[in-house]
Amino acid sequence: MASEDVVGKRSESAVTTIVNLAEEAKIAREGVQAPSDALLGICKSLAAGGIAGGVSRTAVAPLERLKILLQVQNPHSIKYNGTVQGLKYIWRSEGFRGLFKGNGTNCARIVPNSAVKFFSYEKASKRILWLYRRQTGREDAELTPLLRLGAGACAGIIAMSATYPMDMVRGRLTVQTERSPTQYRGIFHALRTVFVEEGPRALYKGWLPSVIGVIPYVGLNFAVYESLKDWLVKSRPFGLIKDSELSLTTKLACGAAAGTVGQTVAYPLDVIRRRMQMVGWKDAASVVTGDGSSKVPLEYNGMVDAFRKTVRHEGFGALYKGLVPNSVKVVPSIAIAFVTYEVVKDILGVEMKISE
User: Fold this and answer.
1) Domains of the chain as residue ranges with CATH
2) Which of 25, 134, 143, 240 could make an SS bond with 147 (beta carbons 3.0 to 4.6 A apart)?
3) Whole-structure pTM over 0.70, yes or no?
4) Which of 232, 224, 214, 246 is nearest to 145 (CA)?
C-alpha cells in the first residue's frame, strides 16, 4: 500500500508538472503572439479606414475639385459660377476625366492621413482621460466635449503635418488645366518639381492656416460626433433610441452634423491655405488671375497678409468661395465612408469605433 501511495503521489506530481508546463508554454506563446496580433489588428483597422476614405473621396471628387477651383479663381474673370454650372463647365472643357483631376493624389493621401489621425486620436484621448481622472480623482470620469475637442485637435495637427506635402501638390494638380504651360505629370513628379524649383519649404506653403484650421475642423468633428452619440444614448430624446446601440442612420446623422459644423467654422482657413499653396507656381497665374492681370495679388507675406489682401480685393465673401459644393459633399461623403467601412470591417473582422 505504501508503495502504491508513493506511485500515486508521483503520478499526481507528474501530472501537475505537465499541466504547469503546458500553462507556462501557453502563456509564453500568447506573450509572443500578442504583439503580432495587436499589430495585425491595427493594420486591419487602418486598411478598413483607408479603403472607406478612398471610396468616399472618389465619390465626391468632382465636388472637391470644383470647390478648390472656386476658391482660387479670379473674381474679374469668372469661369465657375455655382455648383451645377461649374460641374457642367468642367465636363465640357475637360471631359469626364477632368471631374476627377487630382483625385489620385487625394486618395493616396487618405490612407496615411487616416492612419495617423485615428492612431493619434486614440492615444491623445486615452492620455487626456488618464490625466483628467487623475486630476479629478474620479476613476469613472468620462471625456467631456471640450476634452474630446482637444484630443481631436491634437490628432488633426499631427495628421495634417505628416501628410501636408501630399495635400499641397494635390491642390496644384487639381487647379492645373489643359491650358497650363507646364503640366505636373503625377504625384511624385509634382513633389520633385516643387522641391527642385521652389525649395523644400515650398512643400509646406500654407501649413500654418492648415494647422490652425484642423483645430476647429477635426476637433469639432470628433467632439460633436462622439458627444452627440453619447447624448442620444443617455437621454434617448423623443423615444428615438431604443437601446444603447445607435442605428447606422443615426450615426450618419451624427457624422453629418459634426462634419457640417467643423467645415463651416474652418472653411476660411482652407481658402487661405489653397491660395498660399499657389504662391511661387508660375503657371498658377493663368488659373488664378484668368486674364493675366495683376488685380488679384499672388504674393502673400504670411497668413495674416493673405487674409487681408483677399478681403480687401474680393470682399469677406471670398473667404467662403466653394462652400456650397463643399457642404453638398459632406453628407454623401460621410455616408459612403461609414457604409464602406462597415463592409470592409466585417470582411476583415475588425472591431473599431469610427470617430470621424
Assistant:
1) 11-348 (1.50.40.10)
2) 143
3) no
4) 224
